Amino acid sequence: MSKKVKFVFSDDFSTYRFNDDHPFNQQRVLLTKDLLETSNLLDEEDIIPPRKATEEELALFHETQYIEAVKKASKGNLTKEEGLVFGLGTEDTPMFPNMHEASSYLVGGTLTAVDAVLSGQADHALNLGGGLHHGFERQAAGFCIYNDGAVAIKYIRNKYDLKVLYVDTDAHHGDGVQWAFYDDPNVCTFSIHETGRYLFPGTGDVRERGIKEGHGYSFNLPIDAYTQDESFLHVYETAFKEIVEYFKPDVILTQNGADAHTFDPLTHLCGSMSIFERIPLLAHELAHQYCDGKWIATGGGGYDIWRVVPRAWAQIWSVMKTERILEGDLPSSWLNKWQHVSPVPLPSTWHDGEEAFPQIPRKSEIEEKNYKLLLAMLKYAKISNSNS
Amino acid sequence: MLVESIMNTNVPTLPPTATIEEALHLLKKNKIRHIPIVDDENRVIGIVSDRDVRDASPSSLLKDADRKELQNEIQTIMSHPVVTVHPLDFVEEIARIFYEKEFAAVPVVHNDELVGIVTEKHMLHTFIQLTGTHVQSSQIEVKVPHRPGILPEVAQIIGDHNVNIVSVLVYPYLDDPHYKVLVFRVQTMNPMPIIRGIRDAGFKLLWPNNIMEPKL
After folding, report:
1. Residue A298: strand, helix, or coil
2. Which residues form the ACT domain (chain B) (predicted)?
3. In chain A, which among 276-335 make CB contacts under 8 A with chain B?
4. A145 or B209: which carries more pLDDT confidence?
5. Full pLDDT tens readout for chain A, 388 residues
């Protein structure tokens, strides 16, 4: 029995480009697609093109005024002063020509994935162009213009009326999505990330757990800088299983930032490929156990676009399509094609060897702190449980 | 920062002749922990805390406890004289009051009349705002020699990269009087160019400190 899975892709994704020096580079998606094709895992019939999100759809989450500002910036008609009110024209989110269209395709890609799964066309769908979790209602931030995750969840609530579990494994806190549903008991958000003590955006404390009706439906694991695989996976897996059992979602949406890897230049977590192999396997398992398989996945952060992101994201698709992770050597044709473009030597295997990873002197302290966080977070889950 | 900018001006009060029962009710209804006691001219003549009121109430463990204690006048248990502050006092000064005294709220008095109240919780909230941790930002810590002009020197590097500074803290470096630590929260997800600039200018970064290998 072949599984029904969909891979959302279009060359239009790479039009979301701020400037040549900017760390957010959608060439990652193309590299991943190419890696999957050379691994004989991605066929023409798996691919669906993203649609462009309509302004009405964007307005499910974003303020009209903000959308208008982005459209103006798109045409080069927004002044610097007008832009700054909306976070447009900063170093993180500079204005660029046709930015409204480029951003609308990323959101539309996630909506396409949602519809593929919820209409029954596919069990799982992947939009690596999405996962822009820092966008706010009326503000661009952290490389994100429109927040596809927040728009997609609003869309699911409106059109399908399902309970959504949002799981965010980006190394940065999934703040935009969390605040969007902070008072909504039908949307549960769970984000594991490097502690905000130093790292952007700074929020995502274990004590942030929702307000009003939504109290008890926001979960955060702000793990220590330099956390390694074992501790990451232990707290993540325990938490995910508890939360999914407590919330019993109808559908799972995962944001798969690939910036928790040691090589990532923007963060200080010390993961290896092991976590990016386990993350999709767990999402897949729990989606089948609780949601009849309904699982939509997006990309997210990830700033080592050569050594980390393509391998990490290819594993998501591999798990969706074959229920297994890829092992052994990377296809030599992929390596040959890209090595001369890459500024760093590309890894030759799917899994990381031990040699690349530093010894962390405070390892046991970090593990202890992360474990205490886990207990604190789960305590809230149990409190909410007994109240409901 | 001035007291008037953070004080709560909506203050439930009681006259000295009110009963303990009324005080209990008022605390519960408004979810507050302190009630200033004022006279007919709105002058603060005492203050009671939730603990004072509870201590003066019959134990909830005794079913047939004598309820008449609840009818005692509040002035029999209020604390006085009361430490008060002025709307133009500094928030930092209240922090000192809270640190040195045993209570957690001070009435704000202007021309002898009650105009507001500041609680310890209030003040901590203000300090959280001051540290900038409520705005999307990244943190950078730099160890610098303690000499005139050092702050603008480092801040200039951040300005040159066109990034907003959300907050700045300056604090001592351990016990060494020759150095200070500058803590910046900068409004960017990509502090790398700034970090590179600070390194190139010869400053020592305490964070990111790269205990294993330079990431840059």
Report:
1. strand
2. 139-213
3. none
4. A145
5. 456 999 999 999 999 999 999 999 999 999 999 999 999 999 999 999 999 999 999 999 999 999 999 999 999 999 999 999 999 999 999 999 999 999 999 999 999 999 999 999 999 999 999 999 999 999 999 999 999 999 999 999 999 999 999 999 999 999 999 999 999 999 999 999 999 988 999 999 999 999 999 999 999 999 999 999 999 999 999 999 999 999 999 999 999 999 999 999 999 999 999 999 999 999 999 999 999 999 999 999 999 999 999 999 999 999 999 999 999 999 999 999 999 999 999 999 999 987 767 888 888 999 999 999 999 999 877 644 444 3
Q: CA-to-CA distance for A176 and B142, rounded, in angstroms?
A: 29
Q: Is A193 on the interface with B (CB under 8 A)?
A: no
Q: Is A363 on the interface with B (CB under 8 A)?
A: no
Region label for A158, one of left (φ > 0), alpha (ψ between -120 and 50) or beta (otherwise): alpha
Helix and strand numbers, DSSP H then E, in chain A = 12, 8
Residue B28: CB atoms within 10 A of its CB come to 11
Tell which of B70, B93, B128 closes a domain: B128
CATH of A5-387, one of 3.40.800.20, 2.60.40.1080, 3.40.630.30, 3.30.70.100: 3.40.800.20
Same-domain status, B112 and B139: no
C-alpha to C-alpha distance for A206 and B99, rounded to whole angstroms:
27
CB B126 within 8 A of CB B91: yes
The residue out of B128, B155, B174 marking a domain boundary is B128
Subunit contact A201:B133, Cβ cutoff 8 A: no
In this predicted structure, what is the pLDDT of residue B122? 87
ipTM: 0.81
Residue A177 · residue A149 · CB < 8 Å: yes
- B26 and B112, same domain (yes or no): yes
Inter-chain residue contact A198 with B208, CB threshold 8 Å: yes
The full set of domain ranges for chain A reads 5-387
CB contact under 8 A, A143 and B189: yes
Of B136, B212, B216, the CB nearest to A200: B136
The residue among A24, A81, A197, A198 with the most chain B CBs within 10 A of its CB, best to mutate, is A198
User: How many angstroms separate the Cα of A305 from the Cα of each of A23, A97, A112, A302, A358?
Assistant: 9, 24, 25, 7, 21
CA dihedral of A54, A56, A57, A61, whole degrees rounded to 10 = 140
Q: How many domains does chain B have?
A: 2
Best CA proximity match to A312, nearest among A245, A254, A355, A247: A254
B192 with A202: Cβ contact below 8 A: no
Domain that holds residue B191: 135-207
Q: Are the beta carbons of A175 and B212 separated by less than 8 Å?
A: no
CB-based contact B136 A202, cutoff 8 Å: yes
Least confident of A27-31, B96-100, B207-211: B207-211
